[in-house]
Amino acid sequence: MQRNFLFGFLGLCLLAVSTTNLQAEGLVRSTSRFYFKESSSGNVVGARIVRRYRVPVVRPSASVDPRLDPRLRKAASFAQERAHARTKARCWRYVKQALVATGAVDSYPKTNYGFQAGEELVRQYGFKKLPMRDPYAAPVGAVIVYGKGAGGAGHVELRTKDGFASDYRSKNRCFYPVIGVYAKFSS
To answer: What are the pLDDT digits (tens) for 16-64?
Structure first.
């Protein structure tokens, strides 16, 4: 009985000593300071925690360029109405359908991949490459073509008043590199 009591008492003493060592090492939870041990000197250092809250980036609304074909604006609103909340990996198909449905192009484009869209729109349908690389500066209805990403197909989307639309809608641009911004001028 005394032997069990002695072992229990020694165990409690060791536990108490180890928790005070943890407090001395700065490993105790703190709300205002962050403690760490420097690797070079071995000293325990405290640093003040500064909280920064993310402020959403507010992008200006897209401008309406009166020189562009008004059917492109219709195509942008058509694509935005049909767009899903998440991608279906069919961006060029949805943009093609929007362009054909609104009469911006007279026949269904033949290319399969998004990164090929700009070349075909210029060659077959009278689109012009605009002198800009920033998708946020593109006018409403402009077709924005992105380069190859992880899947290798690229991405295409239409600029809407408050964001972008293809098979999905988004307020943010695609993270792939921009190949070009294309639009058709009214005749």
So the answer is: 666 555 554 555 554 566 666 777 777 777 766 666 656 666 677 899 9
Tokens encoding 172: 């943010």
C-alpha–C-alpha distance, residues 139 and 66, integer Å: 10
The pLDDT of residue 8: 74
Going from the C-alpha of 126 to that of each of 97, 108, 116, 139, the distances in angstroms are: 17, 14, 15, 17
CATH number for the domain whose boundaries are 70-183: 3.90.1720.10
Residue 117 and residue 146 in contact, taking contact as beta carbons nearer than 8 Å: no
pLDDT, tens digit, for every residue of 145-180? 999 877 789 999 999 999 999 999 999 999 899 999
Tokens at 158, concatenated: 């239409």
